[in-house]
Amino acid sequence: MTLQTRPGHSNRPDPAAHIKLVVSDIDGTLLTPQKQVTHHTLNAITALRHAGVPVCLVSSRPASGIEMYLEALKLDTPYGALNGGSIFNPDRSLRSQLTLPTDIVQEALGLLQEHNIDAWLFRGHEWVITNAASPYVEPESRAIKQTPNIVPSFKTMLAGVGKITASSSNYDAITQQEAEIGALLKGRACVAQSAPFYLDITPPNANKGYALHQLADFYGIAPHEVACLGDMNNDLPMFKAAGMAIAMGQATQTVKDQAHFVTAANTAEGWSKAVTEYILPRAAKAD
């Protein structure tokens, strides 16, 4: 696939000329569909390191699902979990955390139950479920290397929730609930798909744009000096915040429309190609 620029949007500045930080989504972006990191990606991260440009990860995954890749990627940088609501220092200590009010948790769970959609709660490092037979529990457990806490009811688990994830094999239902729950909780929660089969509900400021600002602040640089890469709707807040937004080739059309550039898919070395084509030339110009 040929790398390409997006159609110009008059309401958005051109991509930044100087890049000092890269913030990347993980699933569908940094990883292949088999959840692997390719040699080309590792080489691209090394090239960025040599250029003095740190790479930070931001994901809807819990912290454990991010930390499992840090050593392999040789990253000693801060990162954002639960769609950016929880920010961790390089030593893996918690830097900041946003949680949902209990009434919002109750309301969201009730809405999902009405539509027979499974819900999961993420509280700190804990993953809580009520339905172990849900088709996405086992693959998610493998993906993040974490075993969920199975409870008969969420009634005593409503406090300290950083993220609610709705999961369903009915992709249309997930898309529909993104619109419906998003409208009902507008201004009170952030509602966005992190995969065709996942819908994430987080505190209103707990999004990847918030995370990008926090990570840029850690390094003392401006958000417009940050390049970001992603593929799903939950990446849009960081696309809006960053000085350069790059969409993966298999990204949703909405995401592509909001990107400065579209790279190849994550099946075709899209991440490393984007770094080589767009980021490194601008990194060389950074102070």
Give your account of this protein's structure.
By secondary structure, this protein is α/β, with parallel strands linked by helices. The protein folds into two domains: 4-96 and 207-283, Rossmann fold (3-Layer(aba) Sandwich); 102-202, 2-Layer Sandwich (Hypothetical Protein, Haloacid Dehalogenase-like Hydrolase, Chain: A, domain 2), CATH 3.30.1240. Helix content is 35%, strand content 20%. It has ten helices and 15 strands. It has helices spanning 26-30, 39-50, 63-73, 102-114, 137-144, 171-184, 208-219, 236-241, 253-257, 270-283; strands at 4-5, 21-24, 55-57, 79-81, 86-88, 94-97, 118-123, 126-129, 149-150, 163-167, 190-195, 198-202, 226-230, 244-247, 261-262. The strands form three sheets. Strands 1-15-14-13-2-3 form a six-stranded mixed sheet, sandwiched between helices. Strands 9-8-7-10-12-11 form a six-stranded mixed sheet, covered by helices on one side. Strands 4-5-6 form a three-stranded antiparallel sheet, covered by helices on one side. Strand 7 (118-123) and strand 8 (126-129) form a beta hairpin. Helix 2 packs parallel to helix 10. It starts with a strand and ends with a helix. The relative contact order is 0.21. Keywords: Hydrolase. InterPro entries: Cof (IPR000150), HAD-like_sf (IPR036412), HAD-SF_hydro_IIB (IPR006379), HAD_sf (IPR023214). This is Hydrolase. GO terms for molecular function: magnesium ion binding; phosphatase activity. One of its GO terms (cellular component) is cytosol.
Tell me about the biggest sheet?
6 strands, mixed
CATH fold topology of the largest domain? Rossmann fold
Helix content: 25-40%
Q: Which consecutive residue ranges, at least 5 long each, have pLDDT under 50?
A: none
- Residue-averaged pLDDT: 93
What is the top-level CATH class of the largest domain? Alpha Beta
Quickly give the CATH architecture of the largest domain: 3-Layer(aba) Sandwich
Count of helical regions: 10
Secondary-structure-derived class: alpha/beta
Q: Distance between termini?
A: 32 Å
List SSEs in N-to-C order: EEHHEHEEEHEEHEEHEEHEHEHEH
Quickly count the domains.
2
Q: What fraction strand?
A: 15-25%
Number of strands: 15
Task: Specify the CATH homologous superfamily of the largest domain.
Answer: HAD superfamily/HAD-like
Radius of gyration over C-alpha positions, nearest whole angstrom: 18 Å
Query: How does the overall form come out from the CA principal axes?
Result: globular
Read across the widest sheet, the strand sequence of neighbours is 1-15-14-13-2-3
